[in-house]
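quick one: 2-phosphoglycolic acid bound model?
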Amino acid sequence: MNRKKIVAGNWKMNTNLNEAVDLINTLKTTTKQFSAIEKIVFPPFTFLKTVTDSLQNETSFFAGAQNCSEYVKGAYTGEVSAEMLSSVKCKFVLVGHSERRTYFKETDEQLVLKIQQAFKNNLQVIFCFGEVLEERKSEKHFDTVKKQLENVLKNFSEKDIDKIYLAYEPVWAIGTGETATPQQAQEMHAYVRKVIGEIFSNKAAENISILYGGSCNAQNAKELFACADVDGGLIGGASLKADDFCKIIASF
Ligand code: PGA
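yep, here:
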């Protein structure tokens, strides 16, 4: 097994230009010693080129976009295409984040199209999924996650799956301060790996990186990252503070 260790920061709709520049400059310096860990930040679109320019000489620190359009180009006011992202040296794109599924009503069909656009433009994908509180309370969380994975990933080949990291983000843990316990995270990550094995192969299951997201912070990252099937974290709130993000990276 030689899965990468990954820590990704989703800045969401936060920072202005000065703050984004300060954050990336600080992170570049403070995370230098962690060259064995892949670091990815997802700034707002407006600051993406500034951040990719700043990271151009880095070998283990990359930038990604929080979303991309399912369309190629044209009359889609307000949208940003995968080709545009690629042209500013963006390397990753988040697809299927629960905030986009919930507030912007993104469907599985749209997520498939977005991933196709990402691949056509040489972007790697972090595919997010996770159950809501009701589903966990009624013990439907495994079924929900299986459906979310199958509905989208079945449209891709085993070769494509190399370009995808998965991010299990229980919706009840996102931005709430309530994180999954290491047991809950490990149990779900092992299950996700089993589902990937069923859709593709044991090899694909073994190789795919699965991040945990949802109130992961400098205090709880260590025990989450110690779980056998947790390969890193997708961090929201705590990724906006350089010191916290750095401590999370140091938790491996
Ligand atoms: P959070 O967000 O760390 O603030 O809970 C995680 C995410 O939405 O990716």
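Residues 6-249 form a domain with the TIM Barrel fold (CATH 3.20.20.70).
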